[in-house]
Amino acid sequence: xxxxxGLAPILTIIYHVLQIFWILIPIALIVFGTIDLGKAVxxxxxxxxxxxxxxxxxxxxxxxxxxxxxxxxxxxxDLVASSVQEEADAExxxxxxxxxxxxx
Length: 104
Known about the structure:
Elements: H1 8-43, H2 46-82, H3 87-101
């Protein structure tokens, strides 16, 4: 069966690269935010601690967004595919995605 109209190898590589980003970006945001907060606490500057807390909270939110964007994209794609008139089109999206992530 020809999954993804011959684009499966390219899409598989893109998927694996994005998987790395989905893991590393949230971890990096949280680590950098923690380091900034640690520096502010060590400096004992109350104003800087408050600013660092705000940045840390924003980084946690950004990390959560980066982590959950793939889930949101998949949900939207499923919704769009299910609204397509032809059932074969909806199944082709899902079979292509399952093939790429290795759930043949």
